[in-house]
Amino acid sequence: MKKTFIASLVFVTATSVNAGGLLTNTNQSASFLRNPSRDAVIDIDGVYTNPAGIAFLNKGFHLGLTVQNAKQSRDVNTSFLGLAQNLNYLGESSRKYHGNATAPVVPSFQAAYVWDKWTLSASLAITGGGGKCEFENGIGSFEVPYSMIPSMLQAAGVTSANAYSMDMYMKGRQYYWGFQVGGTYKVNEHLAVALGVRTVYATANYNGYVKDITAYNVSAAGATSLPLDLTSYNISMDTDQSGIGFTPVIGVDWKINEKWNLAAKYEFKTRMRLKNDTKEIQYPTNPSIKAVAQNVIGLYDEDVTTEVKEDIPGTLTLGAQYSPIKEVRINAGFHYYDDTHATRSGDKHKTIDSGTKEITAGVEWDAIPMLTVSAGYQRTMYDLSDEYMNDISFNNTSNLFGCGARINLSEKINVDLGYMVNFYEDKTVTQENYLGSGYARKDTYSRKNRVFAVGVNFAF
Q1: Residues whose CB is less than 8 angstroms from the CB of residue 35 and which lie 6 or more positions away in sequence, other chains included
Q2: Distance between CA 311 and CA 350 in Å, rounded?
Q3: Where residue 139 falls among pLDDT bands split at 50, 70, 90?
Q4: CB 3.0-4.6 Å disulfide test: which of 46, 94, 215, 246 passes with 79?
Q5: Number of CB atoms found within 10 A of residue 205's CB
Q6: What is the pLDDT of residue 430?
Q7: What CA–CA distance (Å, rounded) separates 342 from 281?
Q8: Which CATH number fits domain 20-83+93-133+171-201+238-272+307-459: 2.40.160.60, 3.40.50.300, 2.40.240.10, 3.10.20.600?
Q9: What CA–CA distance (Å, rounded) separates 232 from 215?
């Protein structure tokens, strides 16, 4: 049991502190929130969604500014099936670990200058990550190995040990800032092509600890703490990560006529290597645990591992827009993220069954000259193996609904108001013989998400 405890402790500490995931942010503007089907839209936010299509904007300078407010909760219900004692000293057979992910202010801008044939464009936005996630009471992967303490102590002769307590905490922060510049060439009145590059600057921090571990004897008379020194099992870490990558982008837009517009875009894979800057790292002082812990927790220790692999997957988007009458635009789109070829440390990308797929649909209606109302839908479908999922780095298939309005203050200025809510499907994962312990671990992953945004667009 002691060997199992040591292996479990080291493994989960390393795999759980990574707050990254498959996230590639597509909500770069308030326009997206009010209608998430933007792949063939001809508008200033097309600098990101349809870079070839901006060639068909009116000549002159266009600028879009957006501020978003996002809030998400991440919950994991964990049970350890067959273990003699429960997950925690409170006597519960399962436990819910709650995490809050927030991004109070997420800014972005898109800009383009349109000539007869050429268009130059630029954008700055958070293209991945985009917030903080805090688990005030830790995560299940931290607690599961510690739940073996009573059995381990009993095997060592401390037969009165049948419960425990501990203080856990975990917090992750991750922002991928993307600065994109590009050029678009209008081949003729119906066809345009685009070429650009996005520079991605990644910054992250992971901070957590397990401390104040206490063993108890719980009986009908109550709980009595045992005078045992368990500080040799304490862990703490505070690590910053940063890196730079480059994403080539190509696009094409075919404006068939006034009713139909088709577009496609491909973003190549971004090679991303994050450098560690370890502010603090405390390994267990117990020699047998420390020797193993250094091999894995060292992923976040600059003295052990200098870089972490976090590639951004290549992405293909296809879109269509149909306008049955001048005042109405109907949109549809498809996205494919090539996650299986985006290299990640520990070859985690090899545990993904296939790339992420998305379908979108939306509609806009110019109700009156001053007001455009819109709504849309996006379904994101992940195909992740049970092996891929863990407490922090998990993704759930979801259904996104967005709605909002554009207020046309003048011919040159308009304001976008958008609101988006994401309904995630719960995913339950059971791992038999968890980490060789002989017991099965079952986790149910749940998420909730909402975003509100305000944008202002100018044309000169």
Answers
A1: 41, 331, 362, 363, 364, 374, 375, 376, 402, 404
A2: 13
A3: confident
A4: 94
A5: 18
A6: 83
A7: 28
A8: 2.40.160.60
A9: 13
Rg (CA), the chain: 25
List the chain domain ranges.
20-83+93-133+171-201+238-272+307-459
Q: State the Cα–Cα distance between residues 359 and 334, nearest whole angstrom.
A: 5
Q: Give yes or no for a contact between 333 and 319, defined as CB atoms under 8 angstroms apart.
A: yes
Supply the DSSP symbol for 270: B
Q: How far apart, in whole angstroms, are the C-alpha atoms of residue 338 and residue 357?
A: 9
Q: Tokens 């455009």 appear where?
A: 372
Contact 30, 418 (CB under 8 A): yes
Six token digits for residue 176: 């991928």
Q: What value does the mean pLDDT take over residues 377-400?
A: 81
Express each pLDDT in 281-311 by its tens digit: 888 786 766 765 666 566 777 776 777 888 9
For residue 356, give the nearest of 395, 393, 402, 391 by alpha carbon: 395
Name, in order, each residue with C-beta under 8 angstroms of 175's C-beta and a sequence gap of 6 or more.
126, 129, 130, 131, 202, 203, 204
CB 34 within 8 A of CB 404: yes
The whole-angstrom separation of Cα 43 and Cα 459 is 11
φ, ψ for residue 49 (rounded to 5)?
-85, -35
Neighbour tally for 3: CB within 10 Å: 11
Task: Count Cβ atoms below 10 Å from residue 312 Cβ, excluding itself.
Answer: 26
223 DSSP assignment: E
Overall size of the chain counted in residues: 460
Tokens found for residue 426: 């719960």
Q: Locate 429 and state its tokens.
A: 């994962």
Residue in the block written with tokens 């269509």: 320
Query: pLDDT value at position 71?
Result: 85
The span from the CA of 130 to the CA of 339, in Å, is 19
Q: How far apart are CA 411 and CA 18, in angstroms?
A: 47
Locate tokens 């905490």: which residue?
169
Residue 75 class from Cβ within 10 Å (0-12 exposed, 13-18 middle, 19+ buried)?
middle
Hey, which residues does 243 pair with through a beta bridge? 202
pLDDT digits (tens, 9 = 90+) for 27-68: 889 999 999 999 999 999 999 999 999 999 999 999 999 999
The burial class, CB within 10 Å (0-12 / 13-18 / 19+), for 397 is middle
Distance of alpha carbon 106 from the chain centroid: 14
Kindly report the pTM of this predicted structure: 0.86
